[in-house]
Design goal:
By secondary structure, the chain is an alpha+beta fold. It is about 20% helix and about 40% strand. InterPro entries: F-box-like_dom_sf, F-box_dom.
């Protein structure tokens, strides 16, 4: 029963976040909370602190007339949208400035953690069932590595897999971030779709990564690991592996329905070099099990000869089976650690691979973070230095393939990488460099 004029007067004392919240109460509050007069005042205060169009003094007739025109010529909610757009643009620019600082070691942004803290970024997953109902899972555990972050969700009230249709991974940031106030999940937030996964026939169509006594792991591209309870058809946990390359852009610059699309690479054409695009690659490789690191290595001056191009792939040999000087020992027993509220475990013979391949200018060319499983090979080691079982681990996506061979040394209880080969898609190389192979 309160007159609208009184409500507008009360609303005029609210900050932007509170104004957005009160607009969700009912239809009348929503209409009043969109008042152009209130939002124009907020807009002028935040973006032009020294120039306000709300000082009603005789010497400021031009300012007042501008304010009147700005109010009467615009539809309700116009200045609300303008305020949110300007605040969001300033926020994104501030975060993206931090991403421009690159680590010379990896070629990736070196201030990711700082940028995430400034942005208030978090990640959630949304499980959608076949009836259209959505189940939001928040409060993940984070594990940071040199080139990636692993995000783990677990809970006790997850829906049964049989009724689920899709899983969506979102980056979430406050709509109007305020560094002096901690992010509030009940406040207005902005969603950026990172990836969408279809869960129909998950256990049949997905890659089986491994299993222990309690769970079985299934891999969905790109970089998602789903742990299923063995005793029942329910999800135990979900683990997302997010590579730092374009991590913040994908988590912030997309929309709730459309994923962020990075701009195409602008090739630097080199007509003098007849093998442009075939050499001077650099590789940074991490193998980890979420909480423990097994291998961290960098490899320079990788190249491919033209005769090694076949079946649509460039072959880059990183570790050669016949050159034992470059063979790599693995620290610890390979496996992926997992946990829920009650249980913890370690699934052996699998790991998370973080690959960062840089072009000759040091720009990230091919990057991913994904779970990989190992398989026992039928052939035995013919190397004089290593006598033991051979294991293989392969990864493939639309941009290339990775093939790794390990030898298990029973005497020392360790793995040795005796072969590591990258196969890069010629289509990827041609589009990146503007060449033709």
């Amino acid at each position: 029963s309160m007159p609208s004029e009184m409500l507008l007067k009360i609303f005029s004392y609210l900050d932007a976040v509170s104004l957005l919240a009160v607009g969700c109460v009912n239809k009348r509050f929503c209409e009043l909370a969109n008042d152009n007069g209130i939002w124009l005042k907020l807009y002028s205060r935040s973006l032009h602190p020294k120039w306000t169009i709300w000082k009603m003094k005789s010497k400021q007739t031009e300012t007042v007339s501008l304010g009147c025109a700005a109010l009467h010529d615009k539809k309700p909610g116009y200045w609300k949208k303008e305020y949110i757009f300007k605040q969001t643009s300033v926020f994104k620019s501030r975060v993206m400035r931090l991403v421009k600082f690159l680590d010379p070691y990896t070629g990736l942004p070196c201030k990711n953690k700082e940028a995430m803290k400034v942005s208030g970024l978090s990640w959630i997953i949304v499980l959608k069932d076949k009836n259209g109902k959505e189940h939001v899972v928040e409060k993940p555990n984070l594990s940071f590595k040199d080139t990636s972050v692993t995000v783990l969700w677990h809970g006790t009230d997850w829906p049964c897999l049989d009724i689920l249709s899709t899983l969506k991974l979102f980056g979430v940031t406050p709509l109007l971030p305020d560094q002096s106030i901690p992010p509030n999940k009940n406040g207005p937030r902005r969603f950026s779709l990172i990836a969408e996964y279809h869960l129909a026939n998950l256990t049949k169509n997905s890659v089986v990564v491994g299993a222990d006594e309690l769970v079985q792991l299934f891999s969905l591209s790109p970089g998602l690991l789903v742990g299923m309870w063995k005793e029942k058809n329910e999800i135990a946990f979900v683990m997302a592996n997010l590579h730092y390359n374009q991590l913040l852009e994908r988590s912030i610059l997309g929309s709730a329905t459309v994923q962020y699309t990075p701009p195409p690479n602008k090739p630097f054409l080199d007509d003098i070099d007849s093998e442009y695009g075939l050499h001077d690659y650099s590789l940074h490789l991490d193998l980890h099990g979420r909480n423990c690191m097994y291998l961290c290595g960098s490899f320079k001056c990788l190249f491919c000869r033209k005769r090694d191009i076949e079946n649509g792939y460039l072959r880059l040999t990183v570790v050669n089976l016949k050159d034992n000087r470059k063979h790599l020992p693995i620290i610890g027993t390979l496996g992926i650690c997992w946990e829920t509220e009650v249980f913890k475990g370690n699934v052996k013979d699998c790991f998370v691979m973080d690959l960062t391949l840089l072009d000759e200018t040091g720009k990230p060319f091919w990057c991913f973070s994904a779970p990989v499983h190992m398989e026992l090979s039928t052939k035995s080691s013919g190397l004089y230095d290593y006598m033991g079982h051979i294991y293989t681990a392969d990864y493939a996506d639309s941009e290339g393939k990775v093939c790794v061979e390990f030898v298990w040394l029973e005497e020392t209880k360790e793995y040795i990488i005796v072969s590591l080969v990258l196969y890069v898609s010629t289509e990827k190389v041609n589009s990146w460099y503007g060449t033709s192979y």
